[in-house]
Amino acid sequence: TLGIAITGSGSAVPATFLDNQGLMELVETSDEWITTRTGIRQRRLANVGESLTDLATAAGEAAIAMAGITPQQLDLILLATSTPDDLFGSACQIQAKLGATRAVAFDMTAACSGFVFGLVTAAQFIRTGVYQNVLLIGADILSRWVDWQDRRTCVLFGDGAGAVVLQANDSDRLLGFELRSDGTQNDCLNLPYTPDATELLPGVVVGRGNFQPITMNGKEVYRFAVQQVPEVIDKALFRANLSVEEIDWLLLHQANQRILDAVAQRLNIPEQKVISNLAYYGNTSAASIPLALDEAIRQNKIKPNDIIAASGFGAGLTWGAAIFQW
Ligand code: ACO
Questions:
Q1: Which residue in the list 20, 133, 256, 283 is annotated as catalytic?
Q2: Where does the Beta-ketoacyl-[acyl-carrier-protein] synthase III C-terminal domain lie (predicted)?
């Protein structure tokens, strides 16, 4: 099989931020509660005129520039999101904005696991020799779907986009992966669509679009993440024929500092190897891993040939890990 490499990264976040102090004006909460339970201090929020397509395109442009290719060279644009501007998908709008005329573009949804699932999906197209240059974007604007009166959820989320360029490469730098799903636990975390009954004609009752805000069983999600994430990382490491000591960076979905700490502890990975930027962005869902990756690369924290263990986990439930070399 052919190899793949990540050759560029990029990210974009809205300019507007909301800190914990600001949240205290919206709901009964405190900076102390939020920081001790989650580690989050502020989050970026997309203004009403700011689209997911805009954020994702900006992240994509930065990744393409770092990779040193042109948009016209892209064969595929894969957008991992749960919050497209259009339910038919937003990837095609990104393709148009980038001027990536040759690229096929489509959306895929796996909630907070979207980036890792997308990475593995993109890799299959490259490994089979079908495509050479892929732009993978993880982007979400969860602020559109949060109940801003529900303190159990509204303090957690933020908006953003991150992207990587994946290219065919002589040596394979995606070293191992493991993906999982468990629909029996679906009700832990939902952004439900509950159609309202509308009788068109006698006996013909259709449902009309009616979205409910995000609901979450925080304790269950916490338990799930801390139990399952170390397992898939172990499995992906096994497939990569690597030991946990050989990991340079642990890059988890940025849901909550307590989850990051607990997973690192279970894997016996020292704190200095754990990448965390959730204090500034909150949980940005599919964007969180590529956003943190891009920051760490641009800060020269992640260096060429470093080995990164990335893991996404979230609604579905879905979870997965990918071990790759920068
Ligand atoms: N401010 C103040 N008090 C709050 C807040 C808030 N923002 N939210 C909840 N509380 C209260 C609750 O009402 C409850 O009060 P009560 O005991 O009087 O009923 C008390 O704090 C404790 O609530 P719990 O839900 O038990 O708090 P817990 O310690 O479990 O922390 C948290 C909640 C932070 C959500 C935790 O469960 C967690 O980290 N879960 C992981 C979920 C997660 O990260 N989800 C992200 C989305 S999922 C994903 O990306 C995969």
A1: 283
A2: 238-326
